[in-house]
Amino acid sequence: MTQEATQYPSTSDSVAAGTSIAAACILVAIGAVEIFQGIAAIAKDDVFVVGIEYVYKFDLTTWGWIHLVLGIVVVLIGIGLFTGATWARIGGVVALALSIVANFLWIPYYPWWSLTVIALAVFGIWAVTAWKPDRI
Predict the structure, then answer these.
(1) What are phi and psi of 108, to 5 degrees?
(2) Rounded to two decimals, what is the model's pTM?
(3) For residue 48, is it within any domain?
(4) Contact 117, 31 (CB under 8 A)
(5) In the chain, how many domains are there?
(6) CA torsion, points 111, 113, 116, 118, in degrees to nearest 10?
(7) Cα–Cα distance measured from residue 83 to residue 131, given in angstroms and rounded to the nearest whole number
(8) Hey, which end of the chain has fewer CB within 10 Å, N or C?
(9) pLDDT in tens, 3-61
(10) Which residue has the higher pLDDT, 90 or 15?
């Protein structure tokens, strides 16, 4: 490679950097919605409709606290991710993985939202892990 070629980031690096900023926005948005979802489950259990019996069944108040705490953590990590901090990148992957698990277990209460959050979390994990800030 010539020296000129190494000065400019590749297209995939630029896309990954842009998606990492998008991932930070997604983390903040998912965290905020999870906070509101948690508050709704804690305050009013009758807001949610429970369908079929599910193996991983918890009380809605318990789910509310899980989503509230997870949402706060995800928002804080999302804010840290805007700076490109290594701790935020690692924390983002861990928080998104936990969000995938929590939303998988939340499927009986909000199936479409759970699947949407799972898809966004998978995208966010890709964006955070594909981004190489030292190459941009």
Answers:
(1) -65, -25
(2) 0.75
(3) yes
(4) no
(5) 1
(6) -70
(7) 13
(8) N
(9) 555 565 566 666 656 667 887 888 898 889 889 888 988 887 666 666 666 666 677 78
(10) 90
